[in-house]
Specification:
126 residues; mainly beta; 7-stranded mixed β-sheet; 4-stranded antiparallel β-sheet; 3% helix; 47% strand
Length: 126
């Protein structure tokens, strides 16, 4: 069983930055496709970013392109989400997810991910 723990959320002013971290247990982290999702109250879970097992391939939701960067450090069993130029609409609980499927198969579909973190709250103020 893989466990994921997010951290780094908080309150930030619009235009500011935050860096989220997701620490994974186990020794198979480097083989997983990793992704970030987010969910606001009353809304469905939304895809944010994905990264393949080597960290060489990434993709982003249109809403965050150019502002967010996903990365991973397999030696530390950690995936990151650097969030810049934050907007009010970025306010949500952010979840880290891992999939045994490859990058293309997992894609942006939440149901394709096998493991989820507990979430970390990001609140962007005006």
């Amino acid at each position: 069983q893989v466990q994921l723990v997010e951290s780094g959320g908080g309150l930030v002013q619009g235009g500011g930055s935050l860096r989220l971290s997701c620490a994974a247990s186990g020794r198979s982290f480097s083989s997983y496709t990793m992704a970030w999702f987010r969910q606001s109250p009353g809304k469905e879970r939304e895809f944010v970013a994905i990264i393949n097992w080597t960290g060489r391939i990434t993709s982003y939701a249109d809403s965050v392109k150019g502002r967010f960067t996903i990365s991973r450090d397999n030696a530390k069993n950690t995936v990151y989400l650097q969030m810049n130029s934050l907007k009010l609409d970025d306010t949500a609980v952010y979840y880290c997810a891992a999939s045994r499927l490859g990058y293309t198969s997992a894609a942006s579909e939440a149901l394709k991910y096998d493991y989820w973190g507990q979430g970390t709250q990001v609140t962007v103020s005006s």
